[in-house]
Design brief:
Elements lengths: L2 H20 L15 E4 L8 E3 H5 L4 E7 L5 H17 L4 E8 L2 H15 L4 E7 L15 E7 L2 E8 L7 H13 L15
Parallel strand pairs: 3-4, 4-5
Antiparallel strand pairs: 1-2, 1-5, 3-6, 6-7
Helix pairs in contact: 3-5
Length: 197
């Protein structure tokens, strides 16, 4: 086979995979009430306790970030730090709840306080959930290394799914938090976003 033909065949073979990555959807349905989220808090005032953060946060603007523990790296850390830093600029009640999806609870329980010491997050809680698939009601895609779910007034406003992520996509999430925090769900078109960062 001619090298050029072989190259074109290879590219055509890859196209479906690229499309699936771009269309990756992860998180509860937009416009629906936020599902319960019982997790073990590793940092903050609830450290060491299991808590339903969805119930605690109620109608306050919240970005729920689900992280596959084995995909945690510096770019993801920069994404999380960027969200944390921006929360007070949107609302004094805005907050990030970051949940590690892990098969090793004890290892993660010991690691997260160390991560907090390094990141110095002021507007976020680091939590953990047993299992890479996450809570069933949150409909997390197994192919999403990071899922960010924007919740305002107790309702899912937007979803972002990433195979890779860094601080450059923080703005996309913040736009949705700010947008829905200031308006009515009945008057604003709710957007669903899938990203391949």
């Amino acid at each position: 086979m001619h090298p050029r033909t072989l190259l074109l065949s290879s590219l055509l073979f890859l196209v479906p995979s690229l499309v699936r990555a771009q269309d990756l959807l992860s998180g509860p349905d937009v416009g629906q009430p936020v599902p319960g989220l019982s997790v073990l808090a590793a940092t903050g005032s609830n450290a060491g306790n299991e808590i339903d953060y969805a119930d605690q946060r109620k109608e306050k603007p919240t970005v729920y970030v689900f992280i596959q523990a084995d995909k945690w790296d510096r770019p993801v850390a920069r994404f999380l730090s960027g969200l944390d830093e921006a929360m007070p600029k949107i609302s004094q009640e805005a907050y990030v709840v970051a949940t590690w999806l892990t098969a090793d609870q004890e290892k993660t329980k010991q690691y997260l306080p160390v991560a907090q010491q390094s990141l110095r997050l002021a507007n976020s809680a680091l939590t953990q959930f047993t299992g890479a698939s996450g809570p069933a009601a949150w409909k997390l895609h197994s192919g999403a290394h990071v899922t960010a779910v924007v919740v305002v007034k107790g309702t899912v406003a937007a979803n972002f799914a990433y195979r890779s992520v860094n601080e450059t996509v923080v703005h996309d999430v913040l736009v949705q938090v700010s947008r829905f925090s200031r308006g009515s769900f009945g008057q604003i078109e709710i957007g669903l976003h899938a990203k391949n960062g």
